[in-house]
């Protein structure tokens, strides 16, 4: 970067015959840092903050001066010390580079008639190269694109040297001129400013170094011609009146009386926050990434979940109808009433607003108060061996009517979204380990798998893994019995062929199916199959062979399977019901009774209490008391 910038300065300076130039560094790329020039201009004079608060040098450059010192620059002690360049490449810290003195052309300021003016020791550099603006072209952004033209005399003579927040030379020049500075009516500021501008023009044009410069009258006449051409050609010309009107004799120039409209066109240069870190006006916060309101409601905020009591309390304050306000307050304060309303209606945010139409909901409240969309967890139903680089899911698309089947149709948030995906679409996902729901470390250990419906998902990965093991010539495996349940053989027995193949090749020892809606057969559930066909096998696996049992599915099924296993142990092993419960608790502790239960998002407290009350846990009976 520094080499290119030195070339830019040398080419543009051209020994005083200034040439317009621009150097463009690579564009901004997502995921990669920017090329940045921290200096506002390639050539600038330092500003040193003094103990009394004053500034020696150029007050406009105090911050960048201190940054350069912080990065290792040894400062001088003059009023016109050229600053080094502070440059930064992608993913790198800023680095300091000293400009070679022979590269920076400076002009000592002399006055054609005031001989003492040279004694002030004033000078200025020849090349005004702006380096802190961002160039945007066709949607591409170039954060480092320094460019230059040449100076207008009043930029140096009025703005840089005479402004009170810059070098503030007017009092010193007026004193040398013998002007009366006690009253503004003497126009001493105007007289002194004119002489400074005369000195700048004289020094640049006919001084020891002839350097390209333009006076403000010629510059404004040139701009008016440009503006007229743009109006004829394009019907308009964006311009900022404050910047176009020169800082001296503005009303004497044609642009002073010209109406201007400041609007943005592309390509364009835009101001950045110098080269320094941006101000903390906007601070990232962890709740939401930077996004539009539409993106927040689509991807990050949960608009389908029933609003919480706290959210209903906020809605009550926004309701204009007294009846709506009272009803919302009741729902937010009465826990039993809220639970009944929530489970009967299962309302989405839209349905709540339809029920209480007088609520005026501001967008800011949505962003700050709506719950975040939580990830949906699915069991992986594929094994990495036969399906490398792939993850298979077995998902039931959820639809249901609220209000005891008489209400509006609701859709499962994630399952419906997945069902609408097209090949090639991106699915944001991550993998969460399940250390307590894996195949036994020893493949000879017998297993019983119970998985109705989509509960078969992890077991598909089990039999795929075992099938891959056998096909690769692996050692013989222990028995594995699968109990699968679905509505009918013709409707949702989706892995029938895979199960048959796995059984034929020895990955599954036995496959038993329970149909709850099979024509001409009584309703049968997986717990019925366990009780009537697998009681002896369950006893052998759990009590005699140190085997494992896996249960995957909704919480109601898992609870009933648990009760069935307890009764099998009572009948087959001669245990009491309490002993059977204690035995299963021990199996859990030894990681031999595995459960992957879903559906806990509905009536969580009720479900948790029911599981605890029916599990006959040895620890719960030893430590009586309410469940936490």
TrEMBL record:
GO terms for biological process: nitric oxide biosynthetic process; regulation of blood circulation. InterPro entries: CysJ-like_FAD-binding, FAD-bd_FR_type, Flavoprot_Pyr_Nucl_cyt_Rdtase, FNR_nucleotide-bd, NADPH_Cyt_P450_Rdtase_alpha, NOS, NOS_dom_1, NOS_dom_2. It is an enzyme of class 1 (oxidoreductase). It catalyses: 2 L-arginine + 3 NADPH + 4 O2 + H(+) = 2 L-citrulline + 2 nitric oxide + 3 NADP(+) + 4 H2O. GO terms for molecular function: calmodulin binding; metal ion binding; nitric-oxide synthase activity. Residues 201-440 form the FAD-binding FR-type domain. Its cofactor is (6R)-L-erythro-5,6,7,8-tetrahydrobiopterin; heme b; FAD; FMN. It holds the Pfam family NAD_binding_1. Transmembrane segments: none annotated. The keyword Heme applies. Belongs to the NOS family. Its EC number is 1.14.13.39. Keywords: Calmodulin-binding, FAD, Flavoprotein, FMN, Heme, Iron, Metal-binding, NADP, Oxidoreductase. This is nitric-oxide synthase (NADPH). The keyword Lipoprotein does not apply. It comes from Otus sunia (Oriental scops-owl).
